[in-house]
Amino acid sequence: MSPYSAPSPAVATITSTSRVASGVFAPGQLGELTQIIPFEMVDAALAATGAVQARTRLLPARVVVCLLLAGCLFAELGWRQVWHKLTAGLGDIPVACPSGSALWQARVRVGAEP
């Protein structure tokens, strides 16, 4: 090889590891949002804003955040319709069927900051 030849290109491999939620709220279960937005990011936002839930609920705070994000994507729909879009892929897995009031209360619990 002559001193004037171009160097061979470097090859780099980038790997990453992600933890995923399990059960009903696992990635893909609530639509594409749970595959795009890691639950650690949602949990960090909830912790930073003091919106972490004090007890386990039928609508966990991280699921409410996904609902709010989906509500932005489906602005023309009501919250119950957005909920049905998020849970449509669950098939026969039992999932909460919250009323409009329950969804409103969950959004109030999470607050505006996350």
Taking Cα atoms only, what radius of gyration do you get, to the nearest Å? 20 Å
Largest sheet: none
N- to C-terminal distance: 58 Å
Number of helices: 5
Structural class: mainly alpha
Which oligomerization state do the chains in this entry correspond to?
Answer: single chain
Question: Which of globular, elongated, flat, extended, rod-shaped describes the shape?
Answer: extended
Tell me the β content: under 5%
> Could you spell the SSE succession in H and E letters?
HHHHH
| Number of individual domains | 1
In short:
The chain is mostly helical and 114 residues long. It has helices at 33-36, 39-48, 61-73, 79-87, 100-110. The protein has one domain.
